[in-house]
Design brief:
alpha/beta; TIM Barrel; 8-stranded parallel sheet; two-stranded antiparallel sheet; 12 helices; binds 3-hydroxy-3-methylglutaryl-coenzyme A; binds magnesium ion
């Protein structure tokens, strides 16, 4: 298997994770959590989104979070923006990079941002042009790249069409989202084969939700195909409130374990990462069950009881 020496993990927990939690985390606690994430070696954190607060009340404090954050100089702090109103708010708060987003599926696009795909292009075009003028890098999410909760399977051709339009606008990276976590490696391969005929692998990041436990297998397939950027969420938090059945992103700590053990460098340290996961678990008031967190929890318990269960 031909593998890269380095892969970049892009942490989306403070945005994709918290947007789908029933509990709204206090602004100060979010900021503290982002500070903890900033001490783990991560180079990219998506901290919030500047969408309509009625649509995503959990992130209605986007402005305060971004303004009050003590930024680390080696970290890119990004946020989601759906339109010019969102961009103005994000720029006003000092964002480093903006992410526009849309879906390859007509129905999910409409449910998520209240527009058809055709109506979305001019809105995003204006946002991208303005952001680039302001010297900001723009990332473009394409959602439901494997399947849509309303329409079923989505063809790679449809994903290619949306990708082309976003790249033509001036987006510098496309994040391909398996929003509802249904994809398997053969489908990821078919999708990437189509896209990589036209574009280099460096343009893409993969964004897998882990609803059916296939995210890590899909990441291994993507690595084999030359992709080196992956979105993940600490504690496996997350989901899209406008995609029925969408559960959390692949967990950052489980992805880190996989990459490290495969000899792929990330620059991220497991211990402070787990500490940050236990911190947000405590604030959410519910246990987060990822592989690495369960192991760490059991080890702590064993040490407390005078036993050791390290493997
Ligand atoms: P709309 O109601 O169609 O907006 O919502 P509008 O343009 O008709 O404006 C209506 C009102 O909203 C106006 O106020 C605007 O000013 C205001 P009024 O004049 O009536 O007082 N407004 C805003 N206020 C604050 N910030 C804004 C904003 N825009 C308009 N940015 C809109 C359209 C896109 C705003 C809405 O549908 C929305 O906020 N949707 C967000 C949905 C969302 O955040 N979904 C989750 C993120 S996507 C995701 O999770 C997938 C991803 O992770 C990848 C994957 O997993 O596949 C990225
Ligand atoms: Mg997502």
């Amino acid at each position: 298997m031909k593998l890269p020496g380095f892969a970049e993990i892009k942490e989306v927990g403070p945005r994709d994770g918290l947007q789908n939690e029933p509990v709204k985390i206090n602004t100060e606690d979010k900021i503290e959590w982002i500070h903890m994430l900033g001490k783990t070696g991560l180079s990219y954190i998506e901290v919030t989104s500047f969408v309509h607060p009625k649509w995503i009340p959990q992130l209605s404090d986007a402005l305060e979070v971004l303004r009050e954050l003590k930024k680390e100089k080696d970290i890119t702090y990004a946020a989601l923006v759906p339109n010019m109103r969102g961009l103005e708010r994000a720029l006003g708060a000092g964002i480093d990079e903006v992410s526009v987003f849309m879906s390859a599926s007509e129905t999910h696009n409409k449910r998520n941002i209240n527009k058809t795909i055709a109506e979305t292009f001019p809105v995003l075009n204006e946002v991208v042009k303005e952001a680039v003028l302001e010297k900001k890098r723009v990332r473009g999410y394409v959602s439901t790249v494997i399947a849509c909760p309303y329409e079923g399977k989505i063809s790679p051709d449809q994903v290619l069409m949306v990708t082309e339009r976003l790249l033509d606008m001036g987006v510098s990276e496309i994040s391909l989202g398996d929003t509802i976590g249904v994809g398997v490696p053969t489908q990821v391969e078919a999708l990437l084969e189509q896209l990589l005929k036209r574009y280099p692998a460096e343009l893409f990041a993969m964004h897998f939700h882990d609803t059916r436990g296939t995210a890590l297998a899909n990441i291994v397939k993507s690595l084999e195909m030359g992709i080196t950027k992956f979105d993940s969420s600490l504690g496996g938090l997350g989901g899209c409130p406008y995609a029925k059945g969408a559960s959390g992103n692949v967990a950052t700590e489980d992805l880190l374990y996989l990459l490290t053990e495969m000899g792929i460098e990330t620059g991220i340290n497991m211990e402070p990462l787990l500490e940050a996961a236990f911190y947000i678990e405590n604030k959410l008031g519910r246990k987060l069950h990822t592989r690495q967190l369960d192991i760490a929890r059991n080890e702590k318990e064993a040490v407390k009881n005078g036993k050791s269960c390290s493997i």
